[in-house]
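FIELD: query
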Amino acid sequence: MDILVQSKKIYGVRLFAYVLMDNHFHLLLETPLGNLGEFMRRFNITYTSYFNRTHNRVGHLFQGRYKSILVDKESYLSELSRYIHLNPVRIKEQKNKTPEEQWHYLVNYPWSSLKGYLSARNKEPFMEYSLILADFGGDTSLGRRAYQNRIKEDLLGELKIKEKVIGQAILGGDHFIKWLKETFSPQKQDRECPGLNELKRYRVWEEIIEVFYKETGKSVEEVKVKKHPLRAVLMDLLYRIGGLTGAEIGKIFNVDYSTVS
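FIELD: result
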């Protein structure tokens, strides 16, 4: 969990739900900078190194590459969160138990974000709850109660997600598929999409500068001065949230990338 939170901060990822099982894990997250590959690479490698050191072993820990599904958050975010939260009772040992027994197991399962959706005092600071709870009345006691009731209803039936996934990669309706086709033409479907990533980073950079000015009343030109107390703050924001490299930030501030580092 420490490595997950650390990786989340480094790559500016938004985490909506998680569950850790004995031999796999599920994450429901958003990557505003389009850097899922970098985030997962860092997360998996760092955890593998920790596990190998702890247990005096070498080599791979995870079997193959992680599986990722692109989700239409307007239509499927809350449904997918419930599917993830139900994972602990979908194993063989729990499947034949009564809904009441399964519910008791779920609310006491420690390695899940469900507890923060059910009780405000169990909310974790690195999690984002409001977007999903908005579908249930908001991040309030009533919203959390509605989410709880929906989970209990799901225990009585079967929440099917896999059948809705298109091409083993996309979870979304017709409008979402159409948007994807129009946005990502065949010429743009190379693995890294460098042009799209550059455009996204440029937009994020503009937003950061705008918010920085609103909060501090200072422009980029004003904080370029070597000893200005806000220079390091803006550099950090551009790196951590904007996804710019040290060299790119150095060009903005007219300094060497080592100074940024």
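FIELD: remark
Strands lie at 14-20, 25-30, 70-71, 170-171.
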